[in-house]
Amino acid sequence: MATDPAPLRVGVAGHINLTPATERLVADALRVELRRISDRPVHGVTCLAAGTDQIFAWAVLATGGSYEVVLPALDYRDTIDPAHRAAFDELLARATLVVHTGYRSSGTAAYVAANRELLRRVDRLLAVWDGEPGCHAASTDQTVRWARQRAIPTTVLWPADARRATPAR
Question: Would you list the domain boundaries of the chain?
Fold first, then answer.
């Protein structure tokens, strides 16, 4: 009796602050890329941050896949912008597995640990990245660099006309 091969494990890294129009462009690009890289539904790995991570989780679901979540810290939910918290809660409830890094408080060290744990769990990385250097050790550019150092196939997606939004203060 033949068994189905394990699904391709795909992680995501990317920008949090995207314009609404860019969110739609990114959602489309992610769905297209997920279908391109695998002829079967994928298993995603995400931290469920607002922006790219949540868009990725919805795209994985839309293409028939499943996903797991790596939470950077015990207080991580509190760091999610209230406008994105309901989606975070819904997506977290739909995850097949939730993994914690062991950090109690969110911050750069916890985010670095989460990104490294995410990379440990994937066969490939999708990065929604405008190509600009980040401002801390857990920025998208660093995650892309770590993935490439580990020879994890990495696809950078930044659709034409995509824009980052100015973060709320």
Answer: 9-157
